[in-house]
């Protein structure tokens, strides 16, 4: 069975493949939101049929998810005992989730039908106004599903990537709000305000309740953010589309092993040829 992307993507509201005023209006709104606070949401980017098809696909490969656990601070750095105990760099949180590797999402199935839809990449590029913009060439990581269960979440952090492109597929029964402090470390690290966010006393935190089918573009390098802990039996599924600034990039073998539980020959062939892209 093949899936026509036209039935999965809400092209009536978002004609991303047709140059013209309707597409320009979507671009203008997304760019405005990104300029304002580094975050843009395209509500109901998927049709109801699209949500159903991507959910069924994620369910069908969920057993292939690779779970990983670690303790991390907001900066993904090691502990530094020379700093005061209450410094934000010394606040460590549990992180656990599972990534379903990209090679479980085969051509012509729903998720890749969206990703491969002619004009999708270019639309994303124009939203972000990035010049150097290539799909991640990693067959385990170009498009994945992040699967999380009760108790999981993604604790407060700054991203190492310039931007993240995610598509909400299924929410947990409750919890899982996307919380972020726009631009909190623009200019300087602003540790005092970061500490208030971690303590739950900052008034700079915005809360987004993303719904299945919503597409999110987020610049997380300067905006501290988290996914609040999940509750209930239902899994949360989010697809992550990855783009990088150079063609041909794949993940480093150790990092790939950690995130996906296996590597492919390409990870070893290309190791050390160029800087690695750490998509996380
Ligand atoms: O799962 C999400 O909605 C976003 C997670 C996140 O912040 C990240 O992958 O860096
Ligand atoms: Fe993030």
UniProtKB/TrEMBL annotation:
Residues 123-246 form the Fe2OG dioxygenase domain. Gene3D superfamilies: q2cbj1_9rhob like domain. PROSITE patterns: FE2OG_OXY (PS51471). Pfam families: HalD. Keywords: Iron, Metal-binding, Oxidoreductase. Belongs to the iron/ascorbate-dependent oxidoreductase family. This is Fe2OG dioxygenase domain-containing protein.
